């Protein structure tokens, strides 16, 4: 099943996605959430905090982390997750996990992280964003569709896109640890949040184009339970998708400010 909710703006995507997560948390207070950073997912955490839920039993696993940043670096995903997710949602810090990008052997750390997700019983809902080149987490074009958590080399385009978070572009690390596409597909539900006209073409390719390593996000088409929440700008090119090209009920338009609960 693929559901696509289209809302006017980023605030709306946050509200709808948060409503979906809130419903999961109410039904399962010990749910395992896969948390993502980046511009599109961050409004989700702001909106979810407004639901006033007790999330002390929630466990969280981050999608990825840079390799080589010093501990406590403000743009490490460990710090972003701490600020934007753990503290905002009042999660128990010991229940929130991020790949160890400072490990002496990042390859071993990646394998250990993959095993930790499995030991936790897997991800109930994995929050996702999408990169301009179709990357999902930090799975760059060419990634195997069944790939596991591993060390990945970031493309120059991805480094340029993330340079806005650093003082100078050269400070963006060249490597990362990322959950693999195969790891992501094992989550019971995938929740993709997308904002902005600059994502319209790649969103269409991911949801209606061929499933291919050249567009890693196209693996969404292989999952049995995908929910996409996009603003109108990001969803602009989905309206011309031929009938039958999208699995499931297709596009559901949600009014401004509406939430799914």
From TrEMBL:
Keyword Hydrolase attached: yes
InterPro entries listed in its UniProt record: Glc/Gal-6P_isomerase, Glucosamine6P_isomerase, Glucosamine6P_isomerase_CS, NagB/RpiA_transferase-like
Family annotation (SUPFAM superfamilies): NagB/RpiA/CoA transferase-like
Boundaries of every Glucosamine/galactosamine-6-phosphate isomerase domain copy: 19-221
Keywords: Carbohydrate metabolism, Hydrolase
Keyword Transcription attached: no
One Pfam family, short name: Glucosamine_iso
Protein name: Glucosamine-6-phosphate deaminase
Organism listed in the record: Arthrobacter humicola
């Amino acid at each position: 099943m693929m559901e696509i909710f289209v809302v006017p703006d980023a605030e709306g995507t946050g509200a709808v996605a948060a409503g979906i997560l809130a419903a999961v948390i109410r039904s399962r207070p010990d749910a395992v959430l896969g948390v993502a950073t980046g511009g599109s997912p961050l409004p989700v955490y702001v909106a979810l905090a407004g639901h006033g839920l007790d999330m002390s039993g929630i466990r969280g696993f981050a999608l990825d982390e840079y390799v080589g940043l010093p501990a406590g670096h403000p743009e490490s995903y460990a710090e972003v997750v701490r600020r934007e997710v753990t503290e905002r949602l009042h999660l128990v810090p010991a229940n929130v996990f991020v790949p160890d990008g400072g490990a002496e052997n990042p390859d071993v750390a990646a394998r250990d992280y993959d095993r930790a997700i499995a030991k936790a019983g897997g991800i109930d809902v994995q929050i996702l964003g999408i990169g301009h080149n179709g990357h999902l987490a930090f799975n760059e074009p060419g990634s195997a569709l069944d790939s596991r958590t591993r060390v990945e080399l970031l493309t120059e385009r991805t480094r340029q896109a993330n340079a806005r978070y650093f003082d100078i572009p050269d400070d963006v690390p060249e490597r990362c640890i990322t959950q693999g596409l195969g790891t992501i597909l094992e989550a019971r539900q995938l929740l993709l949040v997308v904002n902005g006209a600059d994502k319209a073409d790649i969103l269409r390719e991911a949801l209606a184009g061929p499933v291919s390593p050249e567009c890693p996000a196209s693996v969404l088409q292989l999952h049995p339970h995908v929910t996409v929440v996009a603003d109108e700008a990001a969803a602009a090119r989905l309206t011309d998708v031929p009938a039958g090209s999208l699995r499931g009920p297709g596009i559901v338009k949600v009014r401004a400010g509406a939430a799914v609960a």
